[in-house]
Amino acid sequence: MGVFLRTDGRVRAAWRVAFFALATTASGLFVSGVVYEAISWTPLVGLSRQYAVPLAEYGQALAFLIGTYAALRIVDGARDGLWSRVGFGPSALRARPMLIGLAAGTLAILVPCGVLILAGRLTFERQPAEVISWWTAARGALFLLAPAALAEELAVRGYLLTTLVESMGRPSAVAITSVIFAMMHLLNPDPSFLSTGMVALAGLFLATIRLTTGSLWAAWIAHLAWNVVQAIVLHAPVSGLPLPTPGYRLVDRGPVWLTGGPWGPEGGLAAAAGMLIATFLLIRYYARPSASTEATA
């Protein structure tokens, strides 16, 4: 029917994605200019500093939530079951997909790291006493990692993946979103060709969880569990970002192509093997024709 509309009267995918990006950007400006200003007049600022809560990360997640809602409501014209269209509705919060996401995100990185530890490629080194305790460091890492993972999932595997799956099918949609996911991490410290490829593979892995379970919640839990294992359990860098390591830290004995080096375990081929095996198992045992997206029609 033209440049903007398809033959069935719906807005073309490119314009839907463009609106989502514009709405998210506008929401980010609103959050930074209005919401943060309002919060600055409340005790929340003091509490966030006391407990090391990164308000910027929560604001980013809020911006993507608003952008997703605006795109679904205004461009897609969704009314009932709006969040279910991107796998973020109440039905996607069931125990089974959440447990699948938790297990996949945990085991895909923990098992390869366990093998590397047994092989002596990764070891632990005692750290001198620090100002903060293990629990305080863990709490701070969780406060940072949870909203960051949610924002990334909403950005890539929420509305964007849903729209691309509908317009061009799963393989192309997963490939495009995985490349975008990798590009989002190019601003992290010292990215390399290998680390960027590993992030793209992580995009494939997380998209598989999203599509096989029909739940963006499950992809978020998997993403968070993956990061928690590295940052809180192993005390390793996460995508090149060093976090506090009170008591002990993970020491990488190399080779970097296998263990990840300064990028963290997720940057090596051992983690790639974990993701590929987990992806195969998800497709083999959990994929359902109706679970690609909860409601893409």
Number of strands: 2
Helix content: 55-70%
Q: Which geometry do the CA atoms define?
A: globular
Order of helical and strand elements: HHHHEHHHHHEHH
Computed structural class: mainly alpha
Output mean pLDDT: 92
Report low-confidence residues grouped into runs of 5 or more: 290-297
Oligomeric form: single chain
Strand order, main sheet: write it out: 1-2
The total of helices stands at 11
Major β-sheet annotation: 2 strands, antiparallel
Radius of gyration: 20 Å
How many angstroms does the end-to-end distance come to? 19 Å
In short:
The chain has 297 residues and is mainly alpha-helical. The protein has 11 helices and 2 strands; from the N terminus they run ααααβαααααβαα. The chain has a two-stranded antiparallel sheet with strand order 1-2.
Structure description:
The chain has a two-stranded antiparallel sheet with strand order 1-2. The protein has 11 helices and 2 strands; from the N terminus they run ααααβαααααβαα. Helix 3 packs parallel to helix 5 and helix 8 (193-213) crosses helix 9 (216-233). It has 297 residues and is mainly alpha-helical. Helix content is 63%, strand content 3%. The two termini are 19 Å apart.
Helices and strands, with pairings:
Blueprint lengths: L12 H27 L4 H7 L4 H21 L19 H24 L3 E5 L7 H23 L2 H10 L1 H15 L8 H21 L2 H18 L14 E5 L3 H4 L9 H17 L12
Antiparallel strand pairs: 1-2
